[in-house]
Amino acid sequence: MNISFQKKIIELIKREVVPAIGCTEPMAVALASAKASEVLGKTPQRIEVFLSANVLKNAMGVGIPGTGMIGLPIAIALGALVGKSAYGLEVLRDVDSESLTNGKALIEKKCIQISLKEQVDKLYIEVICHHEEEFAKVIITKEHTHIVYIEKNNNVLLDQQIDASSENGKEEECNLTFASVYEFATEATIDDIQFILQSAELNRQAAISSAQGNFGHSVCKTVTGVNGKRFLGDSALTHMLAMTSAACDVRMDGAMIPVMSNSGSGNQGIAATLPVLSFADDIECSKEQLIRALTLSHLMVIYIKQSLGRLSALCGCVVAATGASCGITYLMGGTKTQISFAIKNMIGNITGMICDGAKPSCSMKVSSGVSTAMLSALMAIENKVVSSSEGIIDEDVDISIANLTAIGSSGMEATDRLVLEIMTKKKC
């Protein structure tokens, strides 16, 4: 692999594996709200928000950090009042009791209007902040922090919508394959990739923080509790389940705790990191082995998301757990071929798991992904693999991945619409 391509991959990982507080969709909306308020230069009296269906779906039922509240209105209000766009997906880092009170007051005045925007990118956020006759508009699309349009009082300050409507140029410069992902992860100079340990440190801390309270559905405490130990035992698998679900539980509950995300998703970052880290702890592998396993996991997720897209009807745990299974197989001593087997086993097993929005029960789906990742790795290390005569699996691992992403993007569009329809019709 040439040096230039290696540098592009490193840049790609650093761009896609970043810290985030809270669920990334409401945080992206809060980011747009913060930027619009900053451009307006005054406290908004009225805020209009237009969202794509996928953003709306992922932002409806998740806890907002530092608020004890669920949903978009408080994220929008706090973004406009105290959010700082320079913080990126940590936009609500400065929320305190006073700003929370002010945010609730803004909601009570019914100053925030949220609408569905049709025929736009799956990741589309438009926020318009008004003060008397003045207004400021901000649009984010394609990526959670990618601001493509800024307007103030009919003066366009930024317009990159045409560029954003095409495929992301940065990703085009770094088109990955399974072979290139494996080669980079296993051969890159260790000093160049040891930054990936930041994901382990940040996400481990999130898992540790979860033990200090009861968050979400407390999947971790169920696994490690009396009944969990009695019926599930105490093993490398249960350790993975506990650590990964703990971080997910605390994040989806809205705790003000940062996690390292992957491709715009905190849960994907958690699921790509913590099963690998937990297994590495259990087998007491070397630091270099851990770094390479984490790099393999995270980069595999990035590769799959390049064709799947930021948001889809396919649950992100399928993608992230596939990366984790690669990392686990590597730590088991797996070869390149066996790691490809792990990918095929994952695709042959849990493809089709739906995304019905970001919410506390995501920790259960993440746990399902982790369990499958371990099983897939175990089978792979024993040279057992779902064959090309079965279902959507192809002899070529890259084609198998392409089949997965085709199903998750275009194939499940009707599912996506139905899920949103069901969610928006609920009375709760």
Concise structural overview:
This protein has helices at residues 3-16, 24-40, 53-59, 72-82, 97-108, 161-165, 169-172, 178-187, 190-193, 197-210, 219-224, 226-232, 236-252, 266-283, 287-308, 316-331, 336-350, 362-381, 397-411, 413-425; strands at residues 19-21, 46-51, 63-64, 69-70, 112-116, 124-131, 134-141, 147-152, 155-159, 258-260. It has 428 residues and is of the alpha+beta class. The longest helix has 22 residues, at 287-308.
Structure, explained:
This protein has helices at 3-16, 24-40, 53-59, 72-82, 97-108, 161-165, 169-172, 178-187, 190-193, 197-210, 219-224, 226-232, 236-252, 266-283, 287-308, 316-331, 336-350, 362-381, 397-411, 413-425; strands at residues 19-21, 46-51, 63-64, 69-70, 112-116, 124-131, 134-141, 147-152, 155-159, 258-260. The chain is α+β, with helices and mostly antiparallel strands and 428 residues long. It is built from 20 helices and ten strands. The strands form three sheets. Strands 5-2-6-7-8-9 form a six-stranded mixed beta sheet. A two-stranded antiparallel sheet has the order 1-10. The chain has a two-stranded antiparallel ribbon with strand order 3-4. The protein folds into two domains: 20-165, 60s Ribosomal Protein L30, Chain: A (2-Layer Sandwich); 169-425, Orthogonal Bundle (2-methylcitrate dehydratase PrpD). α2 runs parallel beside α4 (72-82), α8 runs antiparallel to α15 and α16 runs parallel beside α18 (362-381). The longest helix is centred in the C-terminal third of the chain and has 22 residues, at 287-308. It is globular. The N and C termini lie far apart (53 Å).
